[in-house]
Structures are given as C-alpha cells and as structure tokens.
Amino acid sequence: MEELRKKQPVRNPLRNGHPHNMYDMITETPNALKRVLEEEVNNIKSIANVLKNKKKIYLIGIGTSYHAALNARYYLKSIGKVDCEAINSMEFILNPPLFNDTQSSAMIIFSHSGIKTYSYQAYLKGKELNVYSVLVTSLNSVIEHPIDAIIRTSQQEQSAAFTISHSCSTLCSLLLSIEIGRLNGLVNSTIENEILVLPSLFSGILEKTIPEIKEWCKAAVKFENRYFMGYGGNESNAHEVSLKIQEATYTFCQGYNVEFYLHGPFIATNETTISTFIITSTTHQLDSAKHKEIIDRTLKSVNLVQNVNSTAALILSESDNTSSSQIGKDTILIRAPDVSEPVSVLTNLYILQLMTYFLAVEKGTNPDSFKRNIPPYDTCFPKSGLIL
Model-level pTM? Predict the structure, then answer.
C-alpha cells in the first residue's frame, strides 16, 4: 500500500492567495464534464450492460466519496430503478453485507485518489468475494490490483477540497443510471437533453452567479454556525458543502435533510447562525404534487428560522418567482439553472463549491491545504499513526 502511495502524482505547491488551486479545479470543471461526455460514455454503457442484471449494488466511499455514493444511490434508485445501498468504506470492511449471492451482487467504489485506506481494502474485498467491482477514480490514479472495471473522472485534484473529481463522479453515476434505465426500457429524454448542455450550464454559473455567491459569503463570514438543508437528491449536497466548508475555512458547518433539521437541530438556530436552504424546480418532476409539498415545507422553514432572528438564504431556480414571494425580504437569494432535480444535484453542487471557495477567500484561509501547512496540524497525523 505504501509503495502504491509513492507512485501517485504529486500535487502543485500551495498558493498564498486567490486564485488558489481549488479555484483552478472549479473553473476547469466544465471542460472535465465535457471530457466525460465525450470519452467515458462507451465505457459506462459496457458497465451498465453488466449491472442491469444485478439484483443489488453496493456503493462505497468515505468523505466526499461517500457523498458521491449517496448521489449514485439517488440516481440508481430514481432513474435506473436499481436496488442499491450506500455504505461508508470503513463500515463496509468492519461490518460487510451478507452477500448471500455474490453473482447477483455488484460493488461500485468511489475513491478520487484510489488509495484511501478503507476504500482500497473494499475493492480488495470485492475481488476476494468474486463480486463484480467497479472503481470510480481520477485519470491519474495508479491502480495495480486487478478490478473488473474502472470509470475515470477527471485530472488529479490539486486541492484537498476535491471538487472537480466529485462533480465528474456524480455525472458518471447519472450517465450509468440513465443507461441502466434505458436497457430496462426506461427513457429519460429530458434529463439526457439537459446533460448535453451541462458544461455550458456550469460555465453560465461562473459567468452569472458569482456576485450572488459573494454576497452570501460576506454575510456568512460573520456567523459562528452555518447550516445547510436540502431534500431528495440535494440532501447529499447539504452534507457535502458542510464537509467542504469545515475543510476549507476551518470553522463549524452542518448539513441536514430539511425535515431532520426541524426535528432537533433547529433548536440550536439563533442570531449566531445562517441557515441556507436548497429547493429545486417543479419542472419535469415525476411526482410534481409531492415535490410542491416539500417546497412549501422548505419555504415555511425559511420563515421559521427568520422568526427566531437567524439569517436565512435560499438557493432556487432562475424561473422560480413564486418561492421568493413567500419568504422574508431579507432572505439572501442565489439563483440556479432551471433544470430537473437529477441535474440540479450537479448544478447546485457547483454553486455550493463556489460558495465554499469564496467563503475561504473571505476568511483568509487556504482551502487547498487540509491545514497540513499549519502547526500542529502539519505533523498530527504521522504522530498519531494515522493514514487517510
């Protein structure tokens, strides 16, 4: 394992200010998505042809890669109509599934570097059990052990924030789910058409949305606690942005399912918190009535936090004027592309990555470093005998 780590590419040096390496990775993402659409599709179709016959798919990752597994679960269930389960890689090793029928099961391991301790053990476990295993990893990952299939995402990350690879792995999961659905007689032409213009949608976010994001950052930097709430496919984005903000700004943040938030964490909401909610367009939803009900509940939650003197923000689609009329005038608004919920997982993720980055710039922290250039964090892992 240690020898394999030494063969991985070395990251670029840290920079002292904006633009950090994280910004380069974010701005390069539209091109990386385009590469996936041009170069990975045939590979994904071949893998889908195998997975369509599997009764159960296990999705494995840790950290941001676990959130990639959550995204894959959402896509495979809602679009591919596949029975699947997301498991963090440590739990997979400590308490693995029963695998009563290994031939009808499959594993997809998400690992941006390909060498995280427990994700690495997970794909070795898959081979031991003779379970069909797929690794989703970067273009530059050095893989020496045999594995059934590899989906390559993006260039090697130059920041500890892992943005470009997460966006690309999420797109790969969406493409895989659509292909499995097609093989099973399900057509998703609306989503497929949106995917074709996804790189331009990301470029549009860079061109139009950064002023709104910076307004949010100037407000958010003043608060001790930051909460993010989402539902459906965007729940994983609430968890992901909280993880990224903690890594990039060295301050507390937490993400929740919006209903979970109401059942406890809300009580810790007060004038020291900023609460950001994510809602998606009702356009092209499979169950529009149910979706509208959840949006209504989310908007009432925005008003709820303002009624206890907390600052509220809302990420909503460009064409949604109804929602903005139902909330307080002081709500910070960030407009996102008007797309179906499955594609909004990607576009909202991109906005949240930019929010993370510019909040780090506002705070003056280095989002690339994982604090490994700052004592005592620079030596704490080796002193503790820990390897990620």
Answer: 0.95
**CB distance 138 to 25 below 8 Å:** no
Per-residue model confidence as pLDDT tens digits over 167-179: 999 999 999 999 9
Cβ–Cβ under 8 Å, residues 339 and 198:
no
Residue 268 neighbours by CB distance under 10 Å: 12
3-class DSSP state for residue 108? strand
Does 1 have pLDDT greater than 60? Answer: no
CA 46 to chain centre: 24
Residue 255 β-bridge partners:
228
What DSSP element (H or E) covers 165? helix 164-183
Beta bridge partners of 59: 86, 108
Q: In what order do the strands lie in the sheet with 225-230?
A: 254-257, 225-230, 273-278, 311-317, 332-336
| Contact between 96 and 141 (Cβ < 8 Å) | no
**pLDDT score of 5 more than 80:** no
Task: Give 240-257 pLDDT, tens digit per residue.
Answer: 999 999 999 999 999 999
DSSP 365-377: --TTSTTTTSTTH
